[in-house]
Amino acid sequence: MKLMFDWDEVNRLITLLNAQGISYLIGSDEPLSMGEESVDPVQLIQRLAASGYPLVENASISLFILHPELVPFIVTALQRSEHEIAENIAIVTLATLYMQQWWIFRLTFALGRLPSFPEAPFVSLWEERHLPAPSAGYGRPGLQALQEYQRQRYGIPIINFLDDWQNQINHLLAQETAYHRKLRNEVREELRGLGLKEQKI
Question: Is the pLDDT of residue 90 over 50?
């Protein structure tokens, strides 16, 4: 874990995240240089994972939930990155999947649609780390196991990674709820079906 940060890079990443609809992060408001606004998605994912600044690194969770179309770029970033960066990307991807399951009802009301970050491209991420599938227990067992995995990875058993991931969801929910979106009837029916399924478990 980094103890020193490149604050210029952190501020650049915050500006780039703002452009992707993540408005709850506040940086220095310095404009990006020519060409920086059109950063390659793979590079953005890698830079977030390499930032070492938890609030920015974990903002990938909100980015992935808001932009599930980034999935092919996440897969590419996982394949092309050096080990430590790839591992960071894997962790925020898993946290996204688990948090999406745990907060699926609140996220649906906030987004006006069911969150759709897919599990299928990332099955190997939880299987290789011997973690629960996101669908198990609506993501809660996975979140707890992922936190324990991170604690062992860094050898620091007292860090509350779960709170950092939850902080991102709290901010995202507050941001998106402010838009007061209305749910379409078909989305309500899907949610009702999920609720009935939960009652049977």
Answer: yes
Residue 27 φ/ψ, nearest 5 degrees = -115, -150
CA angle 88, 60, 146 (to 5 degrees): 50
Integer-rounded Cα Rg, in Å, for the chain is: 17
Whole-angstrom distance, CA of residue 151 vs CA of residue 138 = 22
Which of 39, 52, 67 lies closest to 10 in space, CA to CA?
52
- For residue 164, the number of C-alpha atoms closer than 13 Å in the C-beta half-sphere is 17
Please state, in angstroms and rounded to a whole number, the distance separating the CA atoms of residues 91 and 58. 9
Q: Taking Cα atoms as reference points, which of 94, 50, 54, 93 lies closest to residue 74?
A: 93
- Closest by CA position to 10, among listed 64, 59, 67: 59
Question: Any residues with CB less than 8 A from the CB of 36 and at least 6 apart, and which?
Answer: 12, 16
What are phi and psi for residue 80, nearest 5 degrees? -100, -10
pLDDT tens digits, 112-157: 999 999 999 999 999 999 999 999 999 999 999 999 999 999 998 8
pLDDT tier, 193 (very low <50, low <70, confident <90, very high otherwise): confident
Among the listed residues 99, 65, 91, 106, the one whose alpha carbon sits nearest the alpha carbon of residue 150: 91
Residue 188 has pLDDT above 80, yes or no: yes
Residues in the chain: 201
C-alpha 118 chain-centroid distance: 12
